[in-house]
Write a structure and sequence with these properties.
The complex is a heterodimer of chains A (about 475) and B (about 180). Chain A has 19 helices and two strands. Chain A is an all-alpha fold and about 475 residues long. The radius of gyration of chain A is 21 Å and the shape is globular. Chain A starts with a helix and ends with a helix. The longest helix of chain B is centred in the middle third of the chain and has 26 residues. Classes of the chains: A mainly alpha (about 475), B mainly alpha (about 180).
Chain lengths: ~475, ~180
């Protein structure tokens, strides 16, 4: 039972591998994968209250890891459902695409449970490898090959970040003589002002900053978001970020607020992420690029929550990233459905969407309102809690800068909503949506509203989750 | 410097520690030469040759640091397999020799050196200044020790690596050939 979700994923991988041996039509493949995704979510829910150590204490199953596993499984299922047409990937390699997707999720699930440096590293590599391969699998019929450029960029930056992370891990091992996080946290907490410890922690954090796309490690974002298939981008934009935040929470507890150097560095990263992301997003015409840049800004907000070094701050960050994943998925649901042939969606392509497909227009509007941070949606409450937490720590400058950023963000999110509702459509094509897509979008919207209306319950639960690892 | 100092230096050189230090320096030199060859050569094949030289140096360092098993693996896997694979890739892709991959701007070379120098200097100073705690030796780094560790403490990692490799191989096939049926 402890290992059930991971075993389900491994089994799912095997089944998809068997499917890839034959010549299945894409309808069968899609039904099988959605079924397997649902099975994974059910397995994650079933093992929700499990606790225990596995594999010589390098793998810990606790409330914290199980909550993240449910979030990851849920986000994966959503991507599988609304991206089930997979139009921009060649039909013959659909099973392989799903095989990589499932093994990537396996890596992420193992990542949130790993409490030992080698296990963390290998599970992170498993998840990265899968995504490195998924990015260039897009088929643009040999026109411009920008998916290859995106894939190469993603791989090179990823390898660089991984290299830094490994180097940092070697320092951690050198300083504490162990690869187990418990021992390392204890050892480093007494020497957080030693330069070697600071460098080690920053280098290891760099690996996860890359996944979360925080300022100095964000360079891959625009090209990968634009070059990868819509469905792949939806996956990259939501699922790995959840796991990255989980690991950041585990790792950042090594630092206390007294380690001034690290705190100041993280503050700079957080503010620069917000400004860079929001200012770049202002001028984007491609919706995916815009969401990519806005993702950098949101990562800055998450970091601001982590920066408080308090249980409440970590809980706010958890609440925020869960909300971000849902809002982002809602927006990508619209992108994947509007792009009939898997092409990239420009903002002007959405003109008059409210006539062409009311439910998609509503989903997009609520998703963007939530991302912009307008009540009563989850984005507003997430930002509110994080800013209150930062204010309690006397980070008055940070809070001011973050508030300015929220204002900048409102402009570009709402101008998309304006195009959707207020301009006359040039093409009157009705966008067809399937029953499953409609159901998914309604579920996502309900979550966005519920998390925004009853935030205290969710934040309290997040706090309970965080306390299980402190 | 007076002659007795030189004498004592020369004497120290021929002690066990001195010779070991000399071998260490030679290995570092091999690594540096290999690295320079790999970075500065204009022909890809020569870059690979430089890489091989550099890997040999790294293997020497592992040996010096009491890890004969890791050194052997470095020789087998990196010097042997990896460089052969890269050579195959170059042969199959047959890149145009005339096409020079120069620096993209006038500043990129100096800036690159500056960044690398800063990182190197910073890490070197850091390494020297830090008081590294000396821990008791866990094992002697032989094949038995490493095998036992891999199948006990790190069994999960050991199994997971195979999944990573599987994904990498499948991915290579998919990207290179576009699937099973083509």
């Amino acid at each position: 039972m402890l290992f059930l979700p991971e075993l389900t994923l491994l089994g799912a991988g095997l089944i998809i591998f068997l499917v890839s041996l034959g010549k299945p039509d894409s309808g069968t493949v899609k039904n099988i994968t959605i079924g397997l995704g649902a099975a994974t979510l059910i397995a994650a829910l079933m093992s929700f209250d499990q606790q225990g150590d596995l594999f010589f204490k390098s793998y810990r199953v606790d409330l914290f890891s199980q909550v993240f596993k449910i979030l990851i499984a849920g986000a994966m299922l959503a991507v599988l459902i609304f991206g089930r047409k997979l139009t921009s990937i060649k039909k013959e390699i659909h099973p392989e695409y799903y095989l990589f997707l499932f093994s990537g999720v396996l890596g992420l699930m193992m990542l949130v449970s790993s409490v030992e440096l080698l296990a963390i590293f290998v599970s992170l590599e498993l998840s990265s490898f899968a995504v490195y391969i998924m990015v260039p699998m897009r088929d643009d019929s040999g026109k411009i090959n920008f998916q290859m450029e995106a894939g190469a960029k993603y791989l090179l930056f990823g390898v660089m970040a991984t290299g830094f992370m490994l180097f940092g891990m070697s320092y951690m091992y050198g300083l504490t003589g162990s690869t187990h996080l418990d021992v390392i946290v204890k050892g480093l907490s007494t020497m957080y002002n030693q330069p070697a410890a600071v460098v080690a922690i920053m280098m290891v954090l760099a690996g996860f900053f890359y996944k979360l796309a925080i300022f100095p490690f964000h360079f891959w974002v625009p090209d990968v978001y634009e070059g990868a298939a819509n469905e792949t981008t939806a996956f990259i934009a939501s699922v790995p970020k959840l796991a990255a935040v989980a690991l950041l929470i585990r790792l950042i507890s090594m630092v206390s607020a007294e380690g001034h150097t690290i705190v100041n560095l993280l503050k700079v990263c957080s503010v620069l992420s917000m400004f860079y992301g929001n200012l770049s997003a202002l001028v984007q015409k491609d919706l995916k690029r815009m969401l990519g840049f806005s993702g950098i800004a949101h990562a800055g907000f998450v970091l601001l929550g982590l920066l408080t070094f308090q249980t409440t701050g970590y809980a706010n960050a958890l609440y925020y990233i869960a909300g971000y994943a849902v809002m982002n998925l809602a927006c990508f649901l619209v992108i994947c459905t509007v792009a009939k042939d898997g092409e990239n969606v420009l903002i002007e392509d959405l003109s008059g969407l409210h006539k062409r497909s009311p439910i998609l227009a509503l989903t997009l509007a609520i998703g963007l309102f939530a991302l912009a941070g307008i009540p009563p949606f989850v984005g507003f409450m997430g930002k509110f809690y994080i800013l209150v937490g930062a204010l309690k720590q006397d980070y008055i400058y940070l809070v001011t800068l973050a508030a300015i950023n929220t204002a900048i963000a409102i402009y570009y999110y709402l101008s998309v909503v304006r195009v959707t509702f207020c301009s006359n459509p040039e093409n009157q094509d009705v966008v067809k949506t399937g029953m499953l897509t409609n159901a998914t979008s309604i579920v996502l919207l309900i979550i966005i509203v519920a998390m925004g209306v009853e935030p205290q319950k969710f934040v309290d639960f997040a706090q309970m989750t965080i306390q299980s690892i402190m | 410097m007076n002659s007795s100092f030189l004498m004592s230096q020369a004497h120290a050189l021929f002690s066990a520690d001195g010779l070991a230090g000399l071998i260490f320096l030679i290995m570092v030199a091999v690594m540096l030469i290999g690295g320079l060859m790999a970075c500065t050569s204009e022909r890809l094949v020569r870059c690979v040759a430089g890489l091989v030289v550099c890997f040999v140096g790294v293997a020497g360092i592992y040996f010096y640091l009491n890890s004969p098993f890791v050194a052997t693996m470095q020789m087998l896997i990196y010097v042997g397999a990896v460089s052969v694979t890269i050579s195959f890739a170059i042969m199959l892709a047959a890149p145009e020799q005339s096409k020079k991959i120069g620096p993209s701007g006038p500043l990129s070379g100096p800036l690159g050196f500056l960044t690398a120098g800063l990182i190197f200097g910073g890490l070197a100073v850091l390494g020297c200044r830090t008081v590294w705690p000396v821990k008791p030796k866990i094992n002697s780094g032989t094949m038995e020790d490493i095998g036992a560790q891999l199948l006990q403490n790190y069994s999960m990692v050991f199994e997971l690596v195979s999944v990573v490799l599987l994904i990498a191989i499948l991915g290579a096939i998919i990207l290179a050939r576009g699937g099973r049926n083509t």
